[in-house]
């Protein structure tokens, strides 16, 4: 179906929407009812049971490429606010309600395009997670229209350009600054106090040896 300038394809079960969307045209989107091999950051698995929202959008590149994951958080926040659910964000890609994860984002740069994957716990169960999690059905007490939420996000995608002010919008929703954090990166763990987020998306962590910028990693509050 066509939504503005974006084509949305809805499928049943796929391995990963980001992997499946990699061969699609720019300004295309793929919504799956289930992922068998859903992926998160640092090659973590994303539990993708039926009832959740698993959406990947194929978009033109932006500078810096990392801007899209913060832009996507702004899009998700606005879509969930429309449903009466207010969220906060934790660097770099966690969407939280009362410190419980309700959504995540995986942005991947693929040559002349960026694949932005968004996973939201909507009507699916979220027990047995390695971290506190929640879902829309738990917050609202009612079943939500997954496809309707996806269509609304695609409308917002085209209304919120990935530009510099996105970082200001992201910061206004962030609960990261001032927190003691432990950030797992590909080269090790960086611990300290989060003192800010640069415009390129890097997290600034004050450690015993000084302020260290972190561009990639998984952040947990300690």
List the SSEs and their pairings.
Layout: E1 2-3, E2 6-14, H1 17-21, E3 28-35, E4 53-59, H2 67-82, E5 88-90, E6 94-97, E7 100-110, E8 113-120, H3 136-140, H4 146-159, H5 165-173, E9 180-185, E10 188-197, E11 203-207, E12 210-214, E13 218-221
Parallel strand pairs: 2-3
Antiparallel strand pairs: 1-2, 3-4, 4-8, 5-6, 6-7, 7-8, 9-10, 9-13, 10-11, 11-12
Helix pairs in contact: 2-4, 2-5
Q: How many H/I helices?
A: 5
Order of helices and strands: EEHEEHEEEEHHHEEEEE
- Could you give a short account of the major beta sheet? 8 strands, mixed
Oligomer: single chain
Q: End-to-end distance, in Å?
A: 44 Å
Mean pLDDT: 90
Which percent range describes the beta-strand content?
35-45%
Helix content: 10-25%
* CATH architecture group name of the largest domain: 2-Layer Sandwich
Task: Determine Rg (CA atoms, Å).
Answer: 17 Å
Shape: globular
The parts where pLDDT drops under 50 for at least 5 residues are none
Total of domains: 2
CATH class of the largest domain: Alpha Beta
User: How many DSSP E strands?
Assistant: 13
- CATH superfamily of the largest domain, please? Bira Bifunctional Protein, Domain 2
Structural class by secondary-structure content: alpha+beta
For the largest sheet, list the strands in their spatial order: 1-2-3-4-8-7-6-5
> What is the CATH topology of the largest domain?
BirA Bifunctional Protein, domain 2
């Amino acid at each position: 179906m066509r939504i503005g300038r974006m084509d949305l394809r809805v499928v049943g079960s796929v391995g990963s929407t980001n992997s499946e969307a990699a061969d699609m045209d720019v300004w295309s989107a793929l919504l799956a009812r289930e992922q068998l091999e859903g992926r998160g950051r640092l090659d973590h698995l994303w539990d993708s049971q039926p009832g959740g929202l698993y959406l990947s959008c194929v978009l033109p590149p932006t500078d810096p490429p990392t801007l899209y994951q913060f832009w996507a958080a702004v899009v998700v926040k606005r879509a969930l606010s429309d449903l009466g659910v207010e969220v906060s964000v934790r660097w770099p890609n966690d969407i939280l309600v009362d410190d419980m994860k309700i959504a995540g984002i995986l942005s991947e740069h693929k040559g002349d395009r960026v694949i932005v994957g968004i996973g939201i716990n909507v009507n699916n169960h979220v027990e047995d997670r390695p971290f506190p999690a929640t879902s829309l059905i738990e917050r609202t007490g009612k079943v939500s229209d997954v496809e309707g939420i996806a269509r609304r996000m695609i409308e917002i995608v085209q209304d919120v350009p990935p530009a510099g002010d996105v970082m200001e919008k992201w910061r206004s929703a962030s609960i990261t600054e001032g927190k003691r954090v432990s950030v797992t990166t590909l080269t090790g763990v960086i611990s300290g106090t989060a003192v800010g987020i640069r415009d390129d998306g890097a997290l600034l962590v004050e450690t015993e040896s000084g302020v260290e910028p972190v561009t990639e990693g998984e952040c947990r509050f300690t």
